[in-house]
Amino acid sequence: MIIGIDASNIRFGGGITHLRELLAGVDRDVCSFDRVIVWGGKKTLDQLPDKEWLVKQHIPLLDGNLLKRLFWQKKLLTKYAKKSCDILFVPGANYSGSYRPYVSMSQNLLPFDYKERARFGFSWTHLRYRLLELSQKKSFINANGVIFLTNTAQNVVESSTGKLPVASSIVPHGVLSVFLQKPREQKDISEYTKDNPFKLLYVSNINYYKHQWVVIEAISRLRERGVPVSLDLVGPAYTSALSKLNDSIQKFDPDGDFVNFKGSVSYSSLPDIYKNSDAFVFASSCENLPNILLEAMASGLPIACSDSGPMPEVLGECGVYFNPEDAKQIEKSLYKLISDKKLRKKYAELAYNESLKYNWPRCAEQTFSFISEVYNEVR
Questions:
Q1: pLDDT tens, residue by residue, 308-361
Q2: Where are the beta strands (DSSP E) in the chain?
Q3: What ranges do the domains of the chain cover?
């Protein structure tokens, strides 16, 4: 069996990490295929591992703009697939060509979450998510198989598409081993001071559904109660959401006493950032699979987490929860965690052990096994 992979929509970020680690994690004694062909742009292919069974085919059109990439996928991909492979895998979700069989994959939940999409108001971003919903919905319905990252994600997508008339599988991503750090010894909150505060970390892009400003208000409340705590915010900013963040900082921390907005940092620096923090807070209300939450779990941090979306499915009973839009609830959950070092120790150890289930060899085995099952069923 020869598997073709369309990497036309995979250019940076989580998509590249997934494809790179998926291919690197393959165990040839377990995964039953003869060869894998990846069609992509040069920058994408350069980041993929070198394997004797992997053919990285450079498509110059895919180095170009969106229109060129759409032309490739609409007009040329089917032609390439018919000549070269037995089944097509489309991890970028969108495929409108005539080649069969193919397996699609859902990695972006915002197009299907109407409440979260509405946060962007009347904007190009809102329109783009609506168009993505329509194109991905068609791609999923016409596929021979669809991979979801969580049960929650499948339920949200099928609330739009209806029960998909095709095979499906839940295959979560892995977490990179560089993030694995066993939980550290927990200190009593009395050992922290104004000059040496308890360091909370929130890694994520600044966006409407991430609710960083609500977290800032909650921490402001904690500090009014005398809890010596600070907040590090790490991640790039969505332009108009940044304005909302700055307004919140000006309101609750005008003197810069406890909010440290670090912006974008290199991915390679993240393990040390996790390592130098005391606990993690995650206030997103929309995720497919929260990879950042997995990283925090693997980093051995006690976690206070949003109760929305797939977060409880992933974190389970390994942390404390809150409504991400309610500052009082966030304050209450954070106080419960920060004030009890035994509870922090318990949750940090539970979360670390839970994170070990999310590894890339397992993801690779489950992904290629499902593709093989779909191929054998069609054949």
A1: 999 999 999 999 999 999 999 999 999 999 999 999 999 999 999 999 999 999
A2: 2-6, 35-40, 54-58, 87-90, 102-105, 145-148, 167-170, 198-203, 229-234, 259-263, 279-282, 303-306, 320-322
A3: 2-174+359-378, 177-355
Q: What is the CA radius of gyration of the chain?
A: 22
- Residue 255 Cα distances to 245, 251, 331, angstroms: 15, 10, 21
Q: Quick: pLDDT tens for 133-156.
A: 999 999 999 999 999 999 999 999
Is residue 375 over pLDDT 90?
Answer: yes
CB-based burial label for 106 (10 Å; 0-12, 13-18, 19+): buried
308: its two tokens: 């929305």
Cross-strand bridge partners of residue 321? 305
pTM reported for the whole predicted model: 0.93
Residue matched to tokens 């890339």: 360
Does the domain spanning 177-355 belong to CATH 3.40.50.2000?
yes
Cα–Cα distance, 89 to 273 (Å, whole number): 35
- Structure tokens, 177: 């081993």
Domain 2-174+359-378 identical in fold to domain 177-355: yes
Q: Which one-letter DSSP state was computed for residue 8?
A: T
Q: Residues 188-226: pLDDT tens digits?
A: 999 999 899 999 999 999 999 999 999 999 999 999 999
3-state secondary structure 238-274: CHHHHHHHHHHHHHHCCCCCCEEEEECCCHHHHHHHH
Please choose, from the candidates 32, 83, 34, 33, the residue with its C-alpha nearest in 3D space to the C-alpha of residue 57: 83
Determine the 3-state secondary structure of 376 from DSSP: helix
Query: pLDDT tens digits for 261-274?
Result: 999 998 899 999 99
* Short-list 304, 316, 305, 302, CA closest to 344: 302
Cβ-count burial 322-348 (b if 16+ within 10 Å, e if not) = bbbeebebbbbbbbebbebbebbeebb
The CATH number of the structural domain formed by 2-174+359-378 is 3.40.50.2000
